[in-house]
């Protein structure tokens, strides 16, 4: 292995650092060449996170965080800060579907009075690798294979799993991507994480290590894999449309900002390295302190000008927020600016309206592609006398940014700290924390993904690797993919973290969609009463029938049809309410039966009344959990809304 100049490379695993746990050094020409080449591989689409969707909003603290940080936007509960949030998939191109099994980007730009602050995160709190020098490798592995550009937006292929098996630091992240977290129900029902360990620094210069969390007010929910595949076919813009529609309807998505804080003196008090980006801080050990709320309340006016041109960078910070020596974060501080230079055509991407700070900015930078500022006068250097030495650096009292003064010493070395070498204990922690249904979904995900891998040797390597996480897990998918069952003691880790299971998330019916299957001759008075009650309870209903236009009830009540069975599908709804009608034709019931059966198969809440109850005879649905029938309109609506809040009924037997 050599550089592009032919220099032989002695190490390709570790970036050059000042000490094993020290910061990455700018003189690491090999890392810079490798990362620069990677950052410039695609024009003009983002290399990763290409398929995104975004919205505007505002953030407001619940309390002052002055004790921990001097960041201005976190000082007062009366302070509102504009934000722009971009959600995205990671692996797929701009033309891929929304429901790929993938990590999701969750990046927030705060337009603060002290400059822009970017919290550039994901919906998973850890990552595949520990050192940024390996980022091109993991993305090369997960992207479509270069000889045939297949498969799109999928990790179910040989090169990705070959990377996993031979880079075992990926074990924890793989557990998350094989879980339901990788196929979210909605951007509105998805957690966000800063991933890295950062620092809060207060006015006294005192520091705390900090991890950032976004907690959706609606709870964290997912779809099932069969459903995800069908949604991608029926509506590849499902997540985009869901976010856009919610904001247009005034159902503004809300997320609470939480922080985990660790004192400087407690840095080495855990059984893992808190700077390791493949590790999380269990919430039971380090509680999440909820400090504010973000509300997304405005859609974009122009997708390209805003969503496509927005430029995030983890190095865009404000006084009171600083970095640590996390080697993945250190590399990202270089990579993001480099990426924007090629993607947005030059150094002036900060002048695009979506990236421009709301506070004034002055410096001696001039010219370049896309320059919009017309600078006056001859002076563009520091120090100077011709312009009274302006602009000049701000003092600490004036809000000038000062890096946290951390003692760094050590030999220049390409290595990784021994404290980063445990790759399996937190992967086991994640497995131990899952419910029985979630564990089954993870086993099924491994079985599907590895079932697409052609090399039996790679399949066996992955099974043997994940036997270190859990023998039950590895044996569960080994049989399905036709390789030898693993042997060995497995993991001795027994600890679990209930916060990691989506079974323990918030459950409410608000903004959930129910398809109402109605045919001619329905009971108008009663059905109208149910629809009104469901609306009061926060459930959104849409009428589905066998033709568009209006349908008449038995009492000549009329309802406008929103969708036909041809344009709608059960996978696009959270629940189904089967009503039927005394004058509905056989074709209606044939299509409605298929609609209801698929929703039942995906463990969704089912409601039925009147002629619609006949649709429950298949699979003995009436006796199953999550199926609601009977009662007054108010009683039925309350029971149905409660079932919708439960999201899924995993205990249901489906055929």
UniProtKB/TrEMBL annotation:
Gene3D superfamilies xref list: 1.20.1370.20, 3.40.50.880, Catalase core domain
Domain Catalase core: 2-390
Xref: Pfam families: Catalase (PF00199), Catalase-rel (PF06628), Catalase_C (PF18011)
Cofactor: heme
UniProt family annotation: Belongs to the catalase family. HPII subfamily.
Official protein name in the record: Catalase
EC number: 1.11.1.6
Keyword annotations of the record: Heme, Hydrogen peroxide, Iron, Metal-binding, Oxidoreductase, Peroxidase
GO molecular function, one term: catalase activity
Active site: 49, 122
Composition-biased stretches (Polar residues): 491-503
Region of interest (Disordered), ranges: 488-510
The UniProt record lists the keyword Disulfide bond: no
Top EC class of this enzyme: oxidoreductase
Any one of the GO BP annotations: hydrogen peroxide catabolic process
Chain positions of cross-link 3'-histidyl-3-tyrosine (His-Tyr): 313-336
Positions bound to heme: 46, 86, 135, 332, 336, 343
Catalytic function, reaction form: 2 H2O2 = O2 + 2 H2O
GO cellular component, one term: cytosol
Keyword Kinase in record: no
